[in-house]
Please model this.
Amino acid sequence: MIWKGNVQWMTVAALGLLLGLAACSKKSQPPAANSTAPLTPATVPAATAPAPEPPAKASGGVKAEMRNVMFHLTPHAAAHLQILSGELWPTGKNEMVVFDDKTSFEVRVNNGTVSISPEALSDVMNQYVFARNDAPLKDLAVSIENNRLIIKGKLHTKKDIPFATAGNLSVTSDGRIRVNTEKITAMKVPVKGMMGLFGIELAKIVNTSKIPGMDTDKNDLLMDLGSLLPPPHIRGKLTGVRLEKNAILATFGDGGKSLGPPKEKGSYMALAEGSVRFGSMVMEPTNLMVLDLDEAATLEWNQDHYKEQLVAGYSKITSSFGLRAYVKDYSKLGRGGGNEAKPAGE
Model:
């Protein structure tokens, strides 16, 4: 599917045929028809030969390194993978990473720096996290003001009362983001002091029991990015989080400082080892490099539309039978406006 053109498909088919013939030529030849050699325990008739063992199931993760990649979480929102190393790991009963099913794998981060803009986080909250009709919050808008995270919206379970919170961010001991709430208003009236006076906490007002990846601790919100964000889930223990001008910046491990120089110029996703299925093709072991057609641009990747991105570009097979796929950014596919997701901070 990734290799384009009839000539490339014929080449792959021919290689498969040659490999099959080579395998056949290595098998031992059957005894001649007039052979009179007696049957011994070491000579087993073909009819009683044991059935061949099934091929071993693919296992383990696919090593991954990504640099300067806008990874779409929704059609209009993306996380900026500034630098990331880790593995793509099959989930559930899946034996390998399947590109056509983004729930078949997760991204396990060892080291890296990932950012998301407030606008993108707002879209994820409204279109995914709190999309259910019975969600406790709705119409959320996230912004950054005076180095504080501002969350505005409506308390859906309280007759859509408008509310706003302001706070700073920190990382819990188990790697979740804590939104330390400093101020709460309802209908533009400060209520945090009043809530404390009457022994009322945010945890008692907002029920997050049905929201994977979100919890409350008194008046603070706790967010587990690995469960909160849409699939493919990005999992890993956070070591730091901070607010920038127009971005929420999260670090894993040492933030990617130990990765050394990039493998390629420009933006890319490099995958190695393990197994990956895309369409009807399986690469085992994986040797795949996805690069932006424009070397100077940020690679914008949408897992739901990766086929279109591949078709709009071109591919090369390396001398080691690796695959280099040069793709067109998702927002440049001519699908209409509104799809572009810019790096946080721009």
